[in-house]
Amino acid sequence: MALQLYGFDSRPGYETAPIVIGGMHRARAIFSLFFKNIFKNMECYVYALSSQGRNYIYVGISLDFTRRLQDHNSGLNRTTKAYCPFDLILKETYPNRIEAREREKFLKGAGGKRYLRQRRLEFIGGCTGLPDCQ
Q: For the chain, which domains are there?
């Protein structure tokens, strides 16, 4: 059974042409067409965390910053579980997810990591004197 959605084809002249979606990707297509735009205009947070015990900086994006920080510090996130607990070194608020993602991408790059290492030195005093700390 195929699902038909009306009015979502962005090509000129096809504004009301049906898009036929079949197979396993039906739910995914519905999500991206209807709900993605809802989250696009919600306030987003970009944050950076520094591990207290190791030389590690994590950069992330979230709609619910408080819950996300608790998840990181309690070891519920698989990526950061080995590095917790964390200190917050940066938190920025953006009006939508697109701008927040742009900033997150910068912070994950070489220039952003340099900036975050400098912030860590200013606010926390480095990374606790570990031998691999720079």
A: 3-40 (no CATH), 44-123 (3.40.1440)
